[in-house]
Write a structure and sequence with these properties.
The protein is α+β, with helices and mostly antiparallel strands. A hairpin with a 5-residue loop joins β2 and β3. The protein has 5 helices and 13 strands.
Length: about 300
């Protein structure tokens, strides 16, 4: 962060943070710290270790999980941050300051060591709505974050792992090996009832176009803080041709304009299939920060000129 020089020398120095995103949203903040603990009620603070243990937070040898977290108190937000349901964003990338890395450092300072039951260098996010909390706003669903690994009870398919091509630090960067549009809709997790009629239309472009960059160590990122899928603008002409073929309509246009459709019409839209470069040990993670994917997800896709590194 950037330290601000204050004219009032009697006041403590403050540290300013700022982040901008590809779709235009930004936030600025000042750094702060507080003692936090994972889990517990959404709307009620458990202000002592005893009260947390009474509520089941930290039981089973996890009473060490109170730790002092450094974070940013937002002073200004723009774009999607003004309308989103929650009032903040949690950094989970592989760099100093991320939530999981601060937890991991605290874990080591307390003399803990990773074993098969808990490894704070691993975490998982399930985007499917889960009825896991009674504290949420009525009618609002929620996903799930698991610290220390993943929860197979939340998986609809076995976990597979994608190669993180920048494992040392930073974003979780992947390489796209191919992209197809599957006609007749449906998801990969379920057999299509009319499988013989299904066609796979390739988005026919070079590797450097798929990834927005031909250089090794560059490519799209898996970004949990982005609610849409952004594709490189270089991909747009080939994608639009494949879309017309998959829709069997030479006049079909792919755009981001609102349109009224019935649930049945939505189910018949082509399924976008993105093939990612697999990790060498595709059935289990290792310390290289492999990105694991399980189940099936639906996202809206957008094209942006400056979105070569976001998906």
């Amino acid at each position: 962060c950037t330290r601000l020089e204050l004219t009032d020398t009697t006041s403590p120095q403050i540290c300013k943070l700022a982040v901008s995103y590809a779709e235009g949203s930004t936030w600025t903040a000042v750094e702060a710290s507080d003692v936090v603990y994972p889990a517990g009620p959404h709307e009620e603070a458990l202000d002592s270790k005893e009260s947390r243990l009474e509520r089941g937070v930290g039981v089973g040898g996890f009473d060490w999980m109170d730790f002092r977290l450094k974070f940013g108190c937002q002073t200004k937000v723009t774009g999607m941050f003004r309308t989103q349901l929650e009032d903040g964003i949690m950094g989970m990338d592989n760099r100093a300051g991320s939530f999981w890395l601060q937890l991991h450092e605290h874990y080591k300072k307390n003399g803990q060591s990773a074993d098969d039951s808990f490894d704070p260098t691993q975490f998982s996010l399930c985007y499917d709505r889960q009825p896991l909390s009674i504290d949420l706003t009525p009618g609002i669903g929620s996903g799930s974050m698991t610290i220390g690994g993943s929860d197979p009870l939340l998986h609809s398919t076995p976990m597979v792992f994608v190669d993180n091509i920048t494992p040392a630090m930073g974003w979780y960067t992947v390489r796209i090996k191919g992209m197809f549009l599957r006609t007749k809709g449906g998801s990969l997790a379920e057999p299509h009832p009319n499988a013989q009629a299904v066609k796979y239309v390739r988005v026919d472009v070079e590797d450097k176009i798929l990834n927005g960059d031909a250089r090794e160590g560059h490519g799209p990122i898996i970004d949990s803080g982005t609610t849409d899928t952004y594709l490189s603008a270089l991909l747009k002409p080939a994608f639009e041709e494949a879309w017309k073929e998959a829709m069997q309509n030479p006049d079909a246009e792919y755009n981001n304009d609102p349109v009224g459709m019935t649930p049945d019409q939505i189910k018949t839209l082509p399924t976008i299939i993105v093939i990612l470069q697999g990790h060498k040990q595709s059935t289990q993670p290792d310390k290289s920060g492999a990105v694991g994917i399980a189940g099936h997800h639906a996202h809206a896709s957008m094209f942006q000129k400056n979105a070569n590194h976001r998906t």
